[in-house]
Write a structure and sequence with these properties.
Rossmann fold, about 425 residues, four-stranded antiparallel beta sheet, Alpha-Beta Plaits, eight-stranded mixed beta sheet, single chain, 13 helices, alpha/beta
Length: about 425
């Protein structure tokens, strides 16, 4: 029995005893003055009624009835389910007559699309609360991320309605452009709730995960910004990205490995020129970056990066070292200068992408139902991945500000012809 149930039971029993005493008073010998019996009965029954009402009022208030019946119902159902499953999972502390559970505070947003679960920490529960899959007890809600409060006394679980969709559908390129133009110049939208600033990006997804079309949605945004983005297209397999690159800027498109290395060298050279230019500008604004001066960002997109990396591994040491230096130079210096890497691959294994390189990429996206090892290599050990079946273009991402832990993402569904849309974009 839970502590709250034990408390309600104790008050209920006390109310029944008072009611029984009142009933007994009515049955006392008629020799007693009726006025006295009526008074005793009235106060005993009134006391029992007050206790009964008190139990109901406390129950309703604890479940936030003042926020509406829908809120009350969801709060009670989910909290009750959570408490029962916590008992089954041995989260309770067994007292003499009841099981004491940690304090639970549950709240929802007004639209019931998201909520917050706050659970009191204890020595007995610390590791268990960190590793438990809480979503199983939360009905339609799933845990997107969790963390401890600064004092370590509570665990906070950020909840989202798992039945909702954040995926946008664009029937025409014009509708895509209309929405894209509402996004700030140096930011990109992933879905209708996640907008991230332009930064180094790793996009991972198996065949059929929607990785390619997700990349296209980002490329289309970049090609249609008010300030022109300078895009470089590296496609070692010479597939669809090479076609897009040749359509937009053939001189910034590379297919063979030697071509890609040459383009990387050109990219880094331009970055060094930007560095000298920005150095002078920073004298007037020391903490600024390229965006503060309205400069164009440069993005080096490498599709099928694993294929490129595999060929590089077979090259001589001098070539391997040169490529490594070029990539690290972009990763470590590019943020302030406005030079970014977008690496696209099926798996982010350490054999295919250097661990230190991967760890310095702030925006990581994994699409589809990937293997556990893929999540580990992308996000690290001990992170929660929302447990659900991911459709095409769906997955999780991390980003230092918006999503320190994996967060759901659903890239838009573009019904229009991508190549035709590319033909309509400015050349730059």
């Amino acid at each position: 029995m839970r502590k709250t149930q034990a408390e309600r039971l104790a008050v209920s029993v006390f109310a029944l005893i008072i009611f029984a005493l009142g009933l007994g008073a009515r049955m006392i010998n008629k020799s007693v003055q009726m006025e006295v019996l009526d008074a005793i009965t009235f106060w005993l029954w009134t006391g029992a009624g007050i206790l009964g009402v008190l139990i109901m009022v406390v129950f309703l208030l604890n479940n936030r009835i003042y926020k509406g019946f829908r809120y009350f119902w969801n709060h009670w159902m989910i909290k009750n389910s959570l408490e029962l499953q916590m008992i089954d999972a041995s989260f309770g502390i067994q007292r003499s007559y009841y099981t004491e559970l940690p304090q639970i505070h549950l709240s929802f947003k007004k639209d019931f699309k998201a909520g917050t679960l706050k659970i009191r920490n204890a020595l007995k529960f610390d590791n268990k609360l960190d590793n438990v899959v809480m979503s199983a007890a939360l009905g339609k809600f799933i845990v997107e991320r969790h963390y401890q409060t600064d004092d370590g006394n509570y665990y906070i679980y950020e909840l989202v309605d798992g039945s909702l969709s954040f995926k946008q559908t664009f029937d025409t390129f014009d509708s895509f452009l209309e929405f894209s133009r509402t996004i700030p110049t140096y930011k990109l939208f992933l879905d209708n709730r996640s907008i991230v600033k332009l930064q180094h990006t790793l996009l991972v997804g198996m065949t059929g995960s929607g990785k390619t079309y997700s990349l296209y949605s980002l490329v289309l945004q970049m090609l249609n910004k008010d300030i022109p983005y300078q895009l470089y297209y590296a496609d070692p397999k010479g597939s669809s990205l090479a076609v897009i690159g040749s359509t937009v800027a053939e001189d910034k498109t590379a297919v063979g490995v030697e071509q890609i290395i040459g383009m990387l060298e050109e990219f880094v050279l331009l970055m060094q020129e930007r560095k000298a230019e920005l150095k002078e500008l920073l004298k007037s604004k020391i903490d600024a970056d390229y965006s503060d001066f309205g400069m164009s960002p440069y993005i080096f997109i490498c599709d099928e990066y694993a294929s490129f990396a595999s060929v590089i591994l077979s090259e001589d040491k001098k070539t391997r070292d040169k490529v490594k230096v070029l990539l690290y130079e972009i990763i470590l210096q590019g943020r302030q200068l406005g030079f970014f890497l977008f690496l696209v691959m099926q798996k982010s294994d350490a054999s295919l992408i250097d661990t230190a390189l991967r760890d310095n990429i702030p925006l990581k996206i994994v699409l589809g139902n990937s293997e556990q090892q893929t999540y580990v290599t992308a996000f690290g050990v001990g992170v929660d991945i929302p447990n659900r079946h991911y459709l095409v273009g769906e997955g999780v991402f991390t980003e230092p500000v918006l999503a320190p832990e994996p967060k759901l993402v659903q890239f838009p569904f573009c019904k229009f012809d991508i190549l035709q849309a590319i033909h309509r974009t400015p050349v730059g």
